[in-house]
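Subject: complex prediction, re-run

Hi both,

The earlier run crashed halfway through, so I resubmitted it with identical inputs.
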Amino acid sequence: MANHVDSVREPLVHGNKNLKTITNDVLGIMEQKPTRLWWAGFLIALSALTLGIVAVSYQIMTGIGTWGLNKTVGWAFDITNFVFWVGIGHAGTLISAILFLFRQKWRTSINRSAEAMTIIAVMCAGIFPIIHMGRPWMAYWMFPYPNTRGPLWINFRSPLAWDVFAISTYLIISAVFWYIGMIPDLATVRDRAKTKIKKAIFGFMSFGWSGSFRTWHRYETVYGLLAGLAAPLVVSVHTIVSFDFATSAIPGWHTTTFPPYFVAGAVFSGFAMVLTLLLIARKAMRLEEYITVKHVENMTKVIILTGGIVTLSYATEFFMAWYSGNGYEQFVFLNRAMGPFAWAYWIMVGCNLLTPQFFWFKKIRTNMMMVFILSIFINIGMWFERFVIIVTSLHRDFLPSAWAMYTPTYVEIATLIGSFGLFFTLFMLFIRYLPIISIGEVKSVLQFKGRNGSGK
Amino acid sequence: MKKYFIVSFDNEFDLVEATQDFRDKGFTVMDAFTPYAVHGLDKAMGLKPSRLGKICFGFALLGLAIGLYGQYWISAVNWPINIGGKPWNSMPGFMPIAFETTILFAGLGTVFALLWRTGVLPGRKPKIYAQDVTDDKFVLVLTEELSSFNSDTAEAISSQYHAVEWHEKLESE
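This time it finished cleanly. Structure:
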């Protein structure tokens, strides 16, 4: 096929690898003692997680009166965090499923960790609506099940009920996709294990995988099918999250551009987070030959594209507010840019519109420190985007007598820090205890030039 | 009694070509064991396309039916509640959840079908015919009745395709 093109391409992993060195490199990480950088990252993350556990326990025992919410601003920090974390997850599925369908072979070195990031981010996201309920021990009431209260069922017309189904399906399918993809590598770990206990654990986890090609053949089919299912799923998830806003009659929320705007924003923020994580992981785990500058560059290009869509969405919102002639809509947007939360709005614009423009320059794209710093700016900007959408639309609604301000309390800030703690703790454990790079998939692209690199 | 002929290669190209040659010369390929999904080996082994796609479609339909009928039955039959004057059967509003159940059933159903069909299940012990197949070896296992197996031809083909190692094994071992 297009092999004549392949033969002039750069290899996807550097350092003249062969099959054995790939196994040794990736599994070597799990067998050696962790680096100091890993310990530093893990301990900082664990402390943040501890802070979060204390904060969440306190607010569950006391009630959500510990938050800065009031009758006007009924959603604020908490739902901002929820939307932020769900969005982060989307890049993982994009890399593992959508790039797979487009046969982007460079994804093989990063898809495992990106998919792990998705699962962890969705877990972080799930915490926020649950604690927002006030009585989280009743959380199972969200699911339709025959009960002794009538049975009274949930309201299927509510986007919040759609959210429950979308997020839980997303978590389940992502976790299954990730685990199925990992089974062959777990079998490699099993076959290399020196201690009895490790052999037993990975023997169980690898489900008796023998490398049989009859199994591989079916496995490849299922992998493709799961990718095909995950691709529309990921679009549906953030579409439904945007419905939480778009279906309510609040100026600034009630627009039809929300679904594509949210999906693009999710991919944008997710890729920034993948970069943040992978730049840490490649340094901490010495993976420079696998997660190459080329990978980083490709991801920054996705950021330029999705950042452009986000910019276009901001402009469209302003244009439509003016063009609709709707006074409430116009007020909300002027208030966003010039009202009491203008500082948050301009942080958002600065981070999300300007930051991606730096990635047009190859010098910046290939400078890992710069990419790392810029990726953090995008993370900040996208968190503020959700904050701006939620708080500015709510705090000044139709009746000036109902206007109010919103300030987060220390409990809410501690909960946000705690969610970052959970995210990084789980990610650090993942890169230490599981094969962080998909060994089988990297091996399969190693020989992309054919025998002797002849392209045949 | 059956006999196995186990031959290892150190790259995918030799394996695929040798497999094709073995089959052309009338040997029966029991299975191959590889560190990754080798492209083109399915054709060389004469494997038919998997039917799991159809199973996936079946589960998707099941999920869609359960999602649609479940919401209809709950909202319009079992305990209708007037919410904002909306119709009891609010089909357009039931679509998002029906979509999610479709994906959920299709995904989980396909994976369970894969695990059940291939016998890759928690607690199973792997059947290992040769070392390092999960690392860097590509192993082909031929099988035939003991009396009809032509060892000389098999060895000749193996060495022609640069096999690293080969040996024979009886079923009882």
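The two ends of chain A are 9 Å apart (CA to CA).

- K.
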